[in-house]
Amino acid sequence: TQPVFADFMQMYGEKAEDMIALGGDEMITRLYWYSAEYGLIQEPGQPVKAFGAGLMSSFTELQFAVESKDAHHVPFDLETVMRTGYEIDKFQRAYFVLPSFDALRDAFANGDLAGIVSRFKGQPALDPATV
């Protein structure tokens, strides 16, 4: 178990309704997608590891995401994650890589979620291949 990730998930549940009420349902869903479903982590001195449930349920995508030079790894940035589109029926075209679970929890706890939603609501999603 990972208590810091559990803290993030609890905060996510508490804040998701507020973001949906502001019209940020797509953006808050993207954060879930790129963390809880398709998240990667690379702690200092360690190889890239998967922690997302979607990756864990697909051996071929898991292998691609962590081992292939063709996998597009992007440093985790809350605003970029919330703005980046995804596809549910193909390998991801971007995988956001956290330096630690603390970074995820802290970005979410301290990030200006309402501001991100306000600035980018209604705008097209970023193309994951170009982030």
Descriptive notes:
The protein has 131 residues and is α/β, with parallel strands linked by helices. The protein has one domain (3-116): Phenylalanine Hydroxylase (Orthogonal Bundle). 53% of the residues lie in helices and 8% in strands. The protein has seven helices and four strands; from the N terminus they run H-H-E-E-H-H-E-H-E-H-H. A four-stranded mixed sheet has the order 2-1-4-3. Helix 1 (3-21) packs antiparallel against helix 2 and helix 1 runs parallel beside helix 6. It is globular. The model has no long low-confidence stretch (mean pLDDT 96).
Task: Annotate the secondary structure layout.
Elements lengths: L2 H19 L3 H13 L2 E2 L7 E2 L2 H4 L2 H9 L5 E3 L2 H6 L11 E4 L2 H10 L2 H8 L11
Parallel strand pairs: 1-4, 3-4
Antiparallel strand pairs: 1-2
Helix pairs in contact: 1-2, 1-6
Which properties best describe this structure?
single chain, 131 residues, alpha/beta, Phenylalanine Hydroxylase, 53% helix
